[in-house]
Amino acid sequence: MARKPGSGFHPIFLVVDEAQVAFMCPAVGEDKRPYGGTKNTSRYFMAARKIHNQGRAVNVHLWQGTQDPTDQNLPKLVREGAHIRASLVVGTEEQARMALGDKAVNGGAAPHKLRQGADKGTVVVAGDGVPLPAGQASITIRTHFINGEDATEVADRAKARRGAVATATDAEPEERDLLSDVVTVLGTDSAVKATDVAARLRKLAPDHADYRKLTAEGLASWLANEGVVVKKSNGTLTVRTRMVHAALEDRDDDQ
Question: Which of 69, 100, 193, 234 could pair with 74 in a Cys bridge, judged by C-beta atoms 3.0 to 4.6 Å apart?
């Protein structure tokens, strides 16, 4: 659902079950702003709205759930900001409208017609983020319902399989050659911003501790120790490929 597919942002999902607890929280912060509520001063209300409005651009998604959606425990502005809305069986058409919206219910979505106890795991889904059949306002999805006992059994089986795996806890940290790695990430570029070089190094070796928190300034200092001077270009620290190659060749000659 990211606005720019292939942008490189890994999806992050924030899951808030029983969201009514957050919206109806009476606590007030030190800045006098309430945590709950539906006003523009509410911490949770505004956080949910901002994530809905801006999070999709960087692949951040907010999932919220509540058993009985109302304007108090799942406000209208937040409900309608969700790109995908889904409902298990509910008791009334009014609850169905709260969950899925008037458009979906008017178009035939009917979670209130599902059978309590018999249609476990069945949800009615609507929203802009769902590939719906042509002319349909919603889609009914039937899944495999897992009760508490089944869930416990699945968890026990998963733990048993994981327990048989030997994990190397005392492994030596991976050694990297900074100059060689910088040459690799620079590729055919003649010059690259130091911040971008640091990001490329993290992508090249995501588990390497020295790269994980590397900044442009830290990279410049590190390269300086290797004989590469990183200067500013238009106010930005920039790594020049020819200087890195020269430092690598000098080091090889010395060795």
Answer: 69
pLDDT bucket at 44, cuts 50 / 70 / 90: very high
Q: Of 126, 121, 128, which Cα lies nearest the Cα of 110?
A: 126
Tens of pLDDT along 17-40?
999 999 999 999 888 999 999 888
pLDDT score recorded for residue 138: 92
Give the integer Cα–Cα distance in Å for 87 and 110.
9
Over the stretch 199-230, which tens digit does the pLDDT of each residue have?
A: 999 999 888 888 888 888 989 988 998 889 99
Other CB atoms within 10 Å distance of the CB of residue 169: 5
**CA–CA gap between residue 12 and residue 60 (Å, rounded):** 5
Q: Which residues contact 92 (CB under 8 A, 6 or more apart)?
A: 112
pTM value is: 0.55
- For residue 61, the cross-strand partners are 13
